[in-house]
């Protein structure tokens, strides 16, 4: 029985309080009447979310929460007590966030980006807004120019900090942001550069980026590293192209053609400009 996750279980028996479900290890859990399907048969399989109820008993629900174990999500704070904050995660019992797990003191009505995890001491699901401690850049699972999933974490003076593929931290610089971003937004992006210390520079995904062949990626990277301009054209000397981009003139023209068709660049007499 996987606490805090979706489980596919079989209906074992019916009682006055609901139906009991069973997993492959013969562990049972109650599905209360409010969630029981109007029609069912014993041994039917059903997908349920398993968590602890207000009395710390294992219980199942067909309502799916806004966040599951080992996930990030933007949740609303419903109330704050002497013990901590209680967040709305779409279930009857609210998700608890202890004071020690709050990056800033939560307030009722506020929205907070949190991570849900299983507290080993209490064996309960809890939330934490100290999201960075659940991320690690020591061993990267991404490469340059790879498309990635992003969650906007928090702004900084130079851009936006983002969660990359739910595993790493990254940064989108201000000059690579082309739309309004809010905490908790889910976005698509690409790894623009990996800096020393495994720091990830992220660009918001442009149309066709993931389909660009490597030489076009190289030209696009050079443009972004030089304020959106390079003084090369199809009339440039092959040696100048080789020196600046480490590719042949033929490869350069093909790459430029790809970017031009995808409307990512504008070709002018003085060179190539990034759209």
Any overview of this molecule?
The protein folds into 4 domains: 6-61, Beta Barrel (OB fold (Dihydrolipoamide Acetyltransferase, E2P)); 71-132, OB fold (Dihydrolipoamide Acetyltransferase, E2P), CATH 2.40.50; 147-204, Nucleic acid-binding proteins (OB fold (Dihydrolipoamide Acetyltransferase, E2P)); 209-274, Orthogonal Bundle (Arc Repressor Mutant, subunit A). It contains 3 helices and 18 strands. It has 275 residues and is mostly beta strands. α1 crosses α3 (249-261). A 5-stranded antiparallel beta sheet has the order 3-2-1-4-5, with no helix packed on it. It has a 5-stranded antiparallel beta sheet with strand order 8-7-6-9-10, with no helix packed on it. The mean pLDDT is 91.
Distance between the termini: 52 Å
Q: What is the helix/strand order?
A: EEEEEEEEEEEEEEEHEHHEE
Average pLDDT, all residues: 91
Quaternary structure classification: single chain
The biggest beta sheet, please? 5 strands, antiparallel
The CATH class of the largest domain is identified as Mainly Alpha
Number of separate domains: 4
CATH architecture tag of the largest domain: Orthogonal Bundle
Number of helices: 3
What helical percentage do the residues reach? 10-25%
Question: Which structural class matches the secondary elements?
Answer: mainly beta
Give, in spatial order, the strands making up the sheet with the most strands.
Answer: 3-2-1-4-5
Q: Indicate the CATH topology of the largest domain.
A: Arc Repressor Mutant, subunit A
Tell me how many strands there are. Answer: 18
Q: What is the rounded Rg?
A: 25 Å
Overall 3D form:
elongated
CATH homologous superfamily label of the largest domain: Winged helix-like DNA-binding domain superfamily/Winged helix DNA-binding domain
Uncertain stretches of 5 or more adjacent residues: none
* Residue fraction in strands: 35-45%
């Amino acid at each position: 029985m996987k606490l805090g996750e979706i489980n596919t279980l079989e209906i074992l028996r019916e009682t006055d309080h609901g139906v009991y479900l069973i997993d492959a290890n013969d562990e049972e859990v109650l599905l209360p009447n409010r969630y029981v399907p109007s029609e069912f048969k014993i041994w039917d399989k059903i997908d349920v979310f398993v968590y602890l109820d207000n009395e710390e008993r294992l219980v199942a629900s067909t309502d799916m929460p806004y966040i599951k174990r080992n996930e990030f999500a933007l949740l609303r704070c419903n109330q704050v007590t002497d013990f901590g904050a209680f967040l709305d995660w779409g279930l009857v019992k609210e998700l608890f966030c202890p004071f020690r797990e709050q990056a800033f003191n939560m307030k009722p009505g506020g929205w907070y980006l949190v991570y849900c995890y299983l507290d080993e001491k209490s064996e309960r699901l809890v939330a934490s807004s100290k999201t960075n401690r659940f991320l690690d850049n020591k061993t990267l699972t991404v490469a340059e120019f790879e498309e990635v999933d992003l969650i906007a974490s928090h702004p900084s003076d130079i851009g936006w900090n983002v969660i990359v593929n739910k595993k790493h931290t990254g940064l989108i610089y201000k000059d690579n942001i082309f739309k309004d971003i809010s905490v908790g937004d889910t976005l698509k992006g690409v790894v623009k550069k990996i800096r020393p210390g495994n720091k990830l520079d992220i660009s918001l995904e442009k149309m066709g980026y993931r389909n660009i062949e490597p030489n076009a990626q190289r030209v696009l990277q050079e443009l972004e590293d030089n304020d959106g301009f390079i003084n090369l054209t199809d009339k440039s000397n092959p040696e100048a192209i080789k020196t600046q981009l480490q590719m042949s003139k033929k490869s350069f023209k093909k790459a430029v053609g790809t970017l031009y068709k995808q409307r990512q660049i504008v070709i002018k007499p003085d060179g190539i400009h990034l759209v």
